[in-house]
Design brief:
Blueprint: E1 2-4, H1 23-30, E2 34-35, E3 47-55, E4 58-67, H2 75-142, H3 150-178, E5 187-189, H4 191-208, E6 212-217, E7 224-226, H5 228-244, E8 251-259, E9 262-269, H6 300-310, E10 314-318, E11 326-333, E12 361-365, H7 369-381, E13 385-389, H8 392-401, E14 406-409, H9 418-431, E15 439-443, H10 448-457, E16 461-464, H11 469-480
Parallel strand pairs: 6-8, 12-13, 12-14, 14-15, 15-16
Antiparallel strand pairs: 1-4, 2-3, 3-4, 5-7, 8-9, 9-11, 10-11
């Protein structure tokens, strides 16, 4: 009988005491064959041969042969038995390698299938908004739309551009999560105002489907410690998911309350519901409650789970089945707060008001001509004077021959990248000029490694594309070191 690191169910172990100094345990432990009386564990067995099964990785078991009659093992017997043991070991090793190869092949095939499905879904999700953007843009260029539909065209283009940016951001978020590089900007956050703002943003989509959205907020819920932007992303994913899977005329209830020492957000709908076999996996990556034709990458709820768990919270989902609605809830630990601390009436992440950039000289480096033109025009619409270049060489020459208040540079430049340009500028500043020009890395390289590399190269701040113009203007204004004028009204928009 053959055994591998113990005995399988079909193997009847030899009547040899494994705890004694003789027998299978000793042969395996000493990695040597044992013959004759030295291997006998019981007087009723006349002769025993214990042969170690050796694979390329070492001993994997023992072949035990019991003989009822006494036998003196000749050299010929030893050669035969050792050859038999070698054949058994090779058979076991080949069988193990075959099973491993079979398992690895199945895993590779599954990974390939998931990759192909993901790429097909990603292609569909990215092409869909591009199709809308191109279509409406062509209609605007051909000037065939009635004047009253121009605003609708622009709104559609903007909505689809934001959708595409959100899809890319979801992929980047999942990459950060998988690599353990998701960063949180933690401070006290009151969930009531945060959820209210998300619901207000989702109402147009709900109204389009005539979905009644009801919000209940307990005003006594204390703050949590967390990243307001990430928590807003969590709530947005939950609410958007409910709107997506609730039919026309449906109902969504959103509640913010306190349970023991946790703040809780509950989003319940009477929509499609979740099948029992899908429910345990609803927060897994690339898993969707509905068919792929519903759209989306299947990352939203996975991001929700990871972000909530990063805040020390828990997330759960419940549904009575398909067609019976769903309830998703998150719990976050409450922050320790003094009773005297006032509860803010607005979000900690209030909207950024864009100031004017009058008489500010900006050096812009962007190799893509379309991006360079739109960034220049937007900054100029706020009063800035912009020098725009497409290469690092041109930008460096302009830097040494002119003065600038702020520099904005892309990273992926031809011939010489933005990192190298920034290092050259910082080196010449150190040798020649007493002051450093504030610099912004405005780039599509949005990973944590890219952000770190930008800081090490000498940039003051890293901003990922796409960026809201108001946010970019506020960053430029802040880096310039200027003080806002007393008569400036926040929120005033410039006239292009």
């Amino acid at each position: 009988a053959c055994g591998s690191h113990g005995y399988p169910d079909t193997f009847e172990p030899p009547p040899v005491p494994l705890s004694s100094g003789h027998g299978v345990a000793r042969a395996f432990r000493e990695d040597r064959h044992i013959y004759g009386p030295d291997a006998i564990g019981r007087p009723t067995i006349a002769s025993v041969a214990l042969l170690v099964l050796r694979a390329s990785s070492g001993p994997i078991g023992v072949l035990a042969l019991n003989f009822a009659s006494a036998a003196a093992f000749t050299e010929r017997d030893r050669v035969f038995l050792e050859a038999l043991a070698a054949e058994c070991a090779q058979s076991l090793e080949r069988a193990d390698l075959y099973e491993r190869e079979k398992h690895a092949r199945a895993e590779a095939e599954e990974a390939s299938r998931v990759k192909d499905e993901l790429l097909a879904t990603l292609s569909h999700e990215l092409r869909t908004p591009v199709n809308a953007i191109l279509g409406w843009t062509q209609l605007l260029r051909q000037q065939v739309l009635p004047a009253h539909e121009n605003d609708r065209a622009l709104e559609t283009i903007e909505r689809n551009a934001r959708l595409q940016a959100r899809l890319v951001e979801e992929l980047l978020d999942m990459s950060r999560i998988v690599s353990g590089k998701l960063q949180l900007n933690v401070h006290q956050v009151y969930l009531g105002p945060l959820v209210a703002e998300v619901v207000a943003g989702a109402r147009p989509s709900a109204d389009a489907k005539r979905i009644h959205v009801q919000l209940y907020v307990d005003p006594n819920v204390g703050p949590v410690l967390g990243d307001a932007d990430r928590l807003m992303q969590v709530v947005w994913n939950l609410v958007a998911n409910a709107v997506k899977f609730t039919p026309k005329g449906g109902q969504i209830e959103i509640k913010v309350d306190q349970v023991a020492s946790s703040a809780r957000i509950v989003v319940a709908d009477n929509g499609r519901g979740i099948a029992p076999d899908v429910l345990p996996f609803i927060f897994d990556r690339f898993r969707q409650a509905g068919p792929r034709t519903d759209g989306g990458l299947g990352l939203g709820l996975a991001i929700v789970r990871h972000v909530v768990e990063a805040h020390g919270g828990v997330v759960s989902a419940d549904s009575e089945g398909v067609g019976r609605g769903a309830l998703l809830a998150i719990k976050l630990p409450l922050a320790a707060v003094s009773p005297a601390d006032p509860a803010p009436s607005i979000l900690p992440t209030a909207a950024v008001f864009a100031p004017r950039l009058d008489d500010m000289r900006i050096l812009l480096v962007e190799d893509e001509s379309d991006s360079r033109e739109i960034e220049s025009r937007l900054l100029e619409s706020y009063g800035a004077e912009v020098q725009a270049f497409g290469t690092a060489v041109e930008a460096f020459d302009a830097y040494v021959t002119s003065t600038h208040d702020v520099m904005i540079a892309d990273i992926g430049l031809p011939e010489e990248d933005g990192y190298s340009l920034m290092r050259r500028i910082r080196a010449i500043e150190k040798a020649t000029f007493p002051a450093r020009v504030p610099a912004i890395a405005l780039t599509a390289f949005a990973t944590a490694d890219a952000r770190k590399a930008a800081m090490l190269a000498g940039f003051n701040i890293h901003v990922a594309k796409p960026v809201e113009i108001g946010e970019l203007v506020a960053i430029v204004f802040g880096l310039s070191g200027r003080s806002p004028n007393d008569d400036e009204q926040p929120g005033d928009l410039p006239h292009a």
